[in-house]
Amino acid sequence: MNENEQSVNVLLDFDLLGKLVVGIGEVSDITGVPLRQIRYWEEKGIIHSSKEGEGTTRKYDYLNIKKIVLVKELMDDGYTLDAAAKKVEERMRNVNEVFAKLAKRSTEDSQEK
Predict the structure, then answer these.
(1) How far apart are CA 61 and CA 23, in angstroms?
(2) Is 59 in contact with 51 (CB distance < 8 Å)?
(3) What is the pLDDT of residues 22-65, one digit of tens each?
(4) How far apart are CA 70 and CA 9, in angstroms?
(5) In a 10 Å sphere around its CB, with 0-12 CB exposed, 13-18 middle and 19+ buried, how is residue 91 labelled?
(6) Phi, psi angles (nearest 5°) of residue 21
(7) Residue-by-residue DSSP string for the chain
(8) Looking at the chain, which terminus has fewer C-beta neighbours within 10 angstroms, N or C?
(9) pLDDT of residue 82
């Protein structure tokens, strides 16, 4: 298996993605979004962190990191923060609906067998 195939397999490992939790500093480094901006987006309710206690570092899961990347891309394309956040929520809702339909079909298909 070459390196490209390995990276694709990692992306398809939903168990791994479910466990992915990254600190705010690393999220900032990876996405290019400044810490201050990430905190502001959280204050506005666009993204959500998990904090294990008072004074601990904010940590973000896969879903929120994805939202950060999408909001940043839309803002880079000229959208305002509010418009970008709304568009991302619509996209996430559409994707969730599609996967819910696929899961339902899969369940129905396995029950018919």
Answers:
(1) 9
(2) yes
(3) 999 999 999 999 999 999 999 999 999 987 666 678 999 988 99
(4) 22
(5) middle
(6) -140, 125
(7) --HHHHHHHHHT-HHHHHH-EEEHHHHHHHH---HHHHHHHHHTTSS--B-SSTTPPPEEEHHHHHHHHHHHHHHHTT--HHHHHHHHHHHHHHHHHHHHHHHHHHHHHHHH-
(8) C
(9) 96
Q: Whole domain around residue 37: which residue ranges?
A: 3-112
How many Å apart are CA 93 and CA 72, to the nearest integer? 18
Task: Write the CATH number for 22.
Answer: 1.10.1660.10
d(CA 1, CA 29): 29
Task: Count CA atoms within 13 Å of residue 17 on its CB side.
Answer: 13
**Six token digits for residue 29:** 């480094």
Buried b (16+ CB within 10 A) or exposed e, 38-50: beebbeeebbebe
Number of domains making up the chain:
1
